[in-house]
Every structure is written in C-alpha cells, then in structure tokens.
Give the backbone structure.
Amino acid sequence: MADTFSSMQNQYKTILKKYIEDKNEVVLYQAQQFSKKILENQVSPEETVSFHLEAIDEFFPKLPEGVRDSFELLIEVMMGFGMAYREHQSLRDKQKELEAEINVAASMQQTLLPANIPEVESLDIGVISMPATKMSGDYYHFIKDENDCIGLAIADIIGKGIPAALCMSMIKYAMDSLPEQRLQPGALLENLNRVVERNVAANMFITMMYGSYDPRIHQFYYSGAGHEPGFYYNYAEDKFEELYAKGLALGIKRETKFREYHKRVEPGDFIVLLSDGVTECRTVDGFIEREEIISLIRKYQHMTAQEIVDKVFYELERLQHFQLKDDFSLIILRRKV
Amino acid sequence: MDLELRTVEGKGRKVLYVGGEIDAHTAPQLKDEIIPLTEEQETKVIVDLTNVNYIDSTGLGVFIGALKSAKNHNSKLELTGLNDRIKRLFSITGLDEVMNIDEDKREEAK
C-alpha cells in the first residue's frame, strides 16, 4: 500500500509538471484518469492536496511563505470531505452486504410459492406473480387432492418488501397445517384468521380469496377475506361478472366468519383471481380501471390461461413504463370441457 | 410528499384533518399523529379525509392500528369525507363493517 501511495504521489507530480510546461488537453485527460485512480486507491482528498503542495514546493523552492501556509489550511478543510468519503465507502460496502442478504431471502421466498401448477384434465390454469421490489407481498397457493379437486388461494399482504415477505411465510405454514380444510374455503379462512390475528402487528393485515374447484361436479366454492374481487367469465353469454366474496380482511378481528359462495362452472367459463396490484396500477393518466383489465383479458382470451396472464402482465407493465409500483399477481382457471 | 395534518380539539372529541396521499411514505406521519389521539381515554376521534384522494394498503393499516388502539382506550374512531375510491377500499376489505364511517358527511364531501 505504501508503495502505491508514493507511486501515486510521483504520478501526480509528473502530470502536474507536464501541465505547467505545456498546458494541453492531453494532460487534462490524464488528470481525469488520475482522479479515478485516487478513488480506486482510496487516497483521501487531504492527501491529494498534500501531493500538490509537495510537488509545487519542489518545482518552486522559493514559494512565498503565505502560499505554503494556505495549503496547510486547505488540507485541514479537506479532512472533512475525506471523512465523509470514507463513511460513504463503508456505507456502500454495507449496502452490498445487505443486498446480498436480500437476494438470498428473495430466492428463499420463491420456494414458498408452488413450484408448478397442478394438472387436471378438464382444467386450464395460468398464474403469474411478480414482486415490485425483490421481495413480494403477494402469495398464491395451489393444491390438488386425490380426487383431482383443486384448492387455490391468492393473498395480498399489506405493504411490500421484507415485512410482507416474513408475514407470507407465516401464511404459507399456517395453510400447510390446515390440510383438512383445504376444500372448505370459509372454515379455512376462519382458522387462518385466528393465526394471523394472534401473530401480526396492530397495523398489519392480509387479504385473501380462497377457492376450491371440484372437477367431478364442476362447482367452484369460494370465500373472501377483504380481497380485491376477481372476475367470472360466462362463456355462453360472453360476459364478465364480478367475482366477489364479502368478508373482513385477516388479522383484524379474532372471531370473524366468512361466508361461502359457490358457482356452477360451464365449459369455456373461467375464473380470474387477482391481487390489488393489478387494479391499483397507476399510470401517468391515473389508475387502471377494472374495465381495462377486462378488455385486456378479452383481447387474449382465445389463448391458453398461462398465455393470457403473461400477456396481460406484459401490457400492464408497459403501461407503467416497466416500473411496477405494487406486487402483481393474476390467476386464471378455465374449464376446458 | 408530506401529509397535511391538523388537529382541532373540542370537548370530548378531536377532529384530525388530513390532506394529501396516504401511502407507504406518508403513512408513518399519519400514524405518529393519530395513535396518540386514540390513546386518551374516552375520546371521540374524527378523521376528516375530505382532502385525501388516495390511500394504499399501508394507509389502511394505520387506520386499523388506530381502531385497535381506540378500542383499548375506550375511545371511538370515526372517518368522514371519503371519496368513492377510498370508500370502495374500506368496503372491499370489510373495514366498513368494523369502523364508523360517517355517511352524511361523505355525501357532502362529494
């Protein structure tokens, strides 16, 4: 390090000498390069000023006394900058460490989400879930039982980032511990609500829509806990309806009841579940309205469920100039035959 | 962006006037103002949202925290002046069933 330091000093002396002699652009360019080197080698501002002082002391041995003293003062002043710069450096290092930790956490979080979509012959399912930042506050879940019944959930945890992600792991494990209620949306939400209410801070809450689909009789049962309504597409009438299940969000009141709704699903009909990131998408012109989401889905409805959700996501992302403001999730479940 | 917050205290009741957008950035300001108001015993805290055009889920969380705190201190929390979009938010999350939302004032505020 000491070597580098004295070599830096010599390099500066050379550049300064050339500049005093020629005053040309090439030397100015070298000076710019040198300032990058200073940063790389962590030479402080006050040390750089002292390079200058020692160099001109050598070039002009008869420096007026006052000039020399003035540099001592400048060195003193530069010390503040030096300290601030070193602080900045150490913060940058810490930030890198944090980022690395968050990356690990984010990839761990991915393991909380289902790795693949269950396959049932008569159904076509598509899902997309994208975090606005590295960590997501949106959760979705699928399970399939031995009768090919599908349980599916979509949830939005208040806030974004790490607190939401921590909360999500609680939801995941709580849901895993309630296997017997997988096909009873109301009962599942009631139990889940008790877990959440006991375990979250006063200002946290979670919204969720839980549904189960029985392909033997093509019935869809669902309950909602304060979640953004989804859509139901009626193929025979070529119409979209709101799919809403009224209920209080999870984590607010201990004893909450959730009403169960059901719907007979005909061939070609499909169910759309979404997180409010989808309808709270903000663009320069204001919010994206639910009708716009419908018209986007309509535009691609001839495609497979997965293609529809991918295309809708892409268009919404484009409308927000590829900067998601909120986590985004969209699930489509269609009865094929 | 900052929230505009102004509290007018009366006998047994306090009115908090809020202006701006309540989101993840401004929610802490609202929380710092509203929670102490609800911590006084037997007070009615009225939050006037006439000049609020947007609340996100973090903002809703602050109101839930305030509701819980008010309950713990035998106080009451009431919201007035909600625009349609905000009203929808309270309705979808089911909060309109557990919170006092002043219907009349809302009509006036339109």
About this structure: Residues 2-104 of chain A form a domain with the Methyltransferase, Methionine Synthase (B12-binding Domains); Chain A, domain 1 fold (CATH 1.10.1240.30). The CA atoms of residues 51 and 120 of chain A lie 75 Å apart. Chain A touches chain B through 25 residues (CB under 8 Å).
